[in-house]
Amino acid sequence: MKSLRIGMIGYKFMGRTHSNAWRQVDKFFDVPARPVLKTLAGRDAAAVKEAASQLGWEGTATRWQDVVADPEIDIIDINTANDTHAEIAIAAAKAGKHVLCEKPLAMTVEEAQGMVDAVKAAGVVNMVCHNYRRIPAIAQAKKMIEAGDLGRIFHYRARYLQDWIVDPNFPLVWRLQSKIAGSGTHGDINAHIIDLGRYLVGELDEVNGHLETFIKERPLPEDPTKTGEVTVDDAAITLARFKNGAIGVLEASRFALGRKNHIQLEINGSKGSLVFDFEDMNRLKYYNEADPADRRGYRDILVTEGVHPYVGSWWPPGHIIGYEHTFVHTIADFIRAVVDGKPVHPTFEDGLEDQKVLAAVEQSSKTRSWVKV
Ligand code: SOE
């Protein structure tokens, strides 16, 4: 079987989840190539060696440039903080590597455009890791929407809530600094429900958003006796109009006590509705207006059968899967695309479109008005 050699840059954030997925993928999925976990890169030599031995990587590097320049590497998987995505991805594309990049794709629309230009010029396969697209229930929802089961779509209602920074003494980590993260809750988790809205409903036309920062100063991680300014948003609310006439309400926050990684979607159309709740991710709720009037109601589709997207490759029917499996699905599709030389969604162009929506919401929050995407 053909092998694909992987170089991963950064392992502290999503890199562990990605490593696990690269290792599992060919054990369960019928992929046309086997990934070889060749080099893991991180700035601290001792720490990256320790991580590599734990995560199953053959070798390590302390400079990402060395991994990108390695002629033996086929794929670069970028898991660094947001401010380095563009530089690494552009260099990787120029070196002829296929690129998988964590979300949000970039810090700005201009950076994202540069990344799109680079992968197009190089003709390499490129993908943004919006793993929630590959939850079986979400992929099933997409299938049903495309088949016309919902009819004309009227509403996209989405919320993504966490609570890990409610404590004002939580330190000023990189995700709370705009020069490293670009934005806060907005680019980190609102980006996911923006991407899911584009995937399931269609392109956005205009937005009216508001970004809020509740805690404006936080202790510095390196010296908690001192504080620094929080330069990103803590919460983001958005009203949206899609090009197909649907309207959307999106809410993202890291200040929703009790909500750890809460994602809920509801889509209402002229023929039916779909409801998804990540805390019950193996289930999709479907309301069909064509059901006999005395039997109408939301039905539960337990998305665990061989007929459902992805799950047939895992355990026997009825056995549920979890968060980590969404990364395996993402990587399985990416490997197939690399071997076939075909695009795989979400491409960097999708990442660029997501970035335009993020920027439009930021602009709208500043000008307190509707902004075209
Ligand atoms: C942190 O907020 C985080 O790990 C995000 O970066 C992921 O994209 C999200 O899926 C879970 O939360």
Description:
This protein is an alpha/beta fold and about 375 residues long. It has 2 domains: about 1-130, Rossmann fold (3-Layer(aba) Sandwich); about 135-320 and about 330-345 and about 350-370, Dihydrodipicolinate Reductase, domain 2 (2-Layer Sandwich). It is built from 10 helices and 17 strands. It has helices spanning about 15-30, 45-55, 65-70, 85-95, 110-120, 135-145, 180, 185-200, 325-340, 350-365, and strands at about 1-10, 35-40, 60, 75-80, 100, 125-130, 155-160, 205-210, 215-220, 225-230, 235-240, 245-255, 260-270, 270-275, 285-290, 300, 370. The strands form 3 sheets. A 9-stranded mixed beta sheet has the order 16-15-14-13-7-12-11-8-17. The chain has a 6-stranded parallel beta sheet with strand order 3-2-1-4-5-6, with helices on both faces. α1 (about 15-30) packs across α9 (about 325-340), α5 (about 110-120) runs antiparallel to α10 (about 350-365) and α8 packs across α10 (about 350-365). The longest helix has 20 residues, at about 350-365. The chain starts with a strand and ends with a strand. The model has no long low-confidence stretch (mean pLDDT about 100). Bound molecules: alpha-L-sorbopyranose. Alpha-L-sorbopyranose binds near residues 162 and 188.
